[in-house]
């Protein structure tokens, strides 16, 4: 049987060796939404570069050219970029706060559904759906109804995602 002293030593060594355990610091790189309010033109330029050069998504404003001093910016930063972006903001003394630290978990909670038909649940229309889910549903609907439904690609978004419209023929096929 080990003495309480040796267990204490093991625990202290464990806490000292495992980053993020001491002090409740979370070192896991999780998806986050940051709130940043640039004060100077230099900070505005830095945010424009971060939002276009790193794997981030600008939630507010809708495009980098609309970032301006004294206007709040909401920036989605995926886990694989959070450390790099955070260090860059700290290096330039650009204060920011984490608005949402568990975005992946929140999205997963909204997309859970036990039904085999995800649209059978009333909450389907009140929940988040990934772009892939939406395009799958649109294309499946068009394939199931080729005489009435057409999906037409009309261009791409600022983030280079396809933009489509759905053309529905309401004439009676009989």
Mean pLDDT: 75
What Rg do the Cα atoms give? 24 Å
Biggest sheet details:
4 strands, antiparallel
- Strand-and-helix sequence, N→C? HEHEEHEHHEE
Largest sheet: spatial strand order? 2-3-1-4
Distance between the termini: 85 Å
How many DSSP-defined strands? 6
How many helices does DSSP assign?
5
Measured by DSSP, the beta-strand proportion falls in 15-25%
Break the fold down into its secondary structure elements and pairings.
Blueprint: H1 4-17, E1 32-36, H2 41-53, E2 57-60, E3 73-77, H3 79-91, E4 96-100, H4 103-111, H5 131-144, E5 149-156, E6 162-168
Antiparallel strand pairs: 1-3, 1-4, 2-3, 5-6
Notes on the protein architecture:
- The chain is an alpha+beta fold and 174 residues long.
- It is 36% helix and 20% strand.
- It has five helices and six strands, in the order αβαββαβααββ.
- It has a four-stranded antiparallel sheet with strand order 2-3-1-4.
- The protein is elongated and about 65 Å long.
- The N terminus is likely disordered.
């Amino acid at each position: 049987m080990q003495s309480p002293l040796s267990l204490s030593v093991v625990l202290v060594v464990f806490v000292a060796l495992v980053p993020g355990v001491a002090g409740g610091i979370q070192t896991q790189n999780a998806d986050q939404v940051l709130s940043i309010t640039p004060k100077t033109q230099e900070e505005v330029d830095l945010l424009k570069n971060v939002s276009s050069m790193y794997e981030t998504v600008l939630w507010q404003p809708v495009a980098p050219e609309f970032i301006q001093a004294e206007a709040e910016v909401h920036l989605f930063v995926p886990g694989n970029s959070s450390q790099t972006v955070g260090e860059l903001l700290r290096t330039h003394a650009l204060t920011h706060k984490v608005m949402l630290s568990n975005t992946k978990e929140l999205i997963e909670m909204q997309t859970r559904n036990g039904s085999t038909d995800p649209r059978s649940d009333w909450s389907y229309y009140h929940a988040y759906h990934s772009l892939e889910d939406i395009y799958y549903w649109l294309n499946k609907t068009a394939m199931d109804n080729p005489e009435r439904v057409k999906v037409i690609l009309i261009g791409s978004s600022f983030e280079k995602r396809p933009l489509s419209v759905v053309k529905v023929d309401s004439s009676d096929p009989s």
